[in-house]
Amino acid sequence: MHTAVFAGYIGRDAENKSTSSGDSVASFSLGVSIGTRDAPKTLWIDCSLWGKRADALSPYLRKGTSVTVSGDVDCRAFTSKKTGEVTAVITCRVDKLTFGSKAESRETPQAFTEPKPTAASNSYKAAKEGAPVAKPAPAAATFDDDIPF
Question: Which residues neighbour 89 within 8 Å (Cβ) at sequence distance 6 or greater?
Fold first, then answer.
């Protein structure tokens, strides 16, 4: 087994298919930046995600989404029918997939983000621990932005 970790951006939306035995597989390409600033290159990896995770995650695997994948890596070579040249393809059978930050990706699925604490949950926690609880400002309060200094 050859396991590797790749971080990059999805190059095409995931295709979700089923095998003849009924297993689901989501296929997508991952572009990984390699090289230097002077000579940038992109390494393309054909990724496949299997089983229930393929069904659950394929709607979120869209072009431009930042992800990190790890899994079994293989390289296969074939002869191109058009040019007759031997071409190599890197494939990864994904074991783990992590979505990038919201700033990096176009859309992060809601189901995979951490819930943000609300004021009510913070005040409950503070009251439980015996700390003073800050009261929110009254809803009808208005602020004058025309202060002369």
Answer: 46, 75, 76, 77, 78
Phi, psi values for residue 110, rounded to 5°? -60, -35
Q: What are phi and psi of 106, to 5 degrees?
A: -70, -40
The residue among 39, 46, 38 whose CA lies nearest residue 11 is 46
Instruction: Give all domains of the chain, ordered by start, each with its CATH number.
Output: 3-112 (2.40.50.140)
21, 33, 52, 78, 94 from 25: Cα distances, Å? 11, 25, 9, 22, 11
pLDDT confidence bin for 3, thresholds 50/70/90: confident
Asked if residue 48 has pLDDT above 90, the reply is: yes
Distance CA 104, CA 120 (A): 30
Measured between alpha carbons, how far is 127 from 121 in angstroms, rounded to an integer? 10
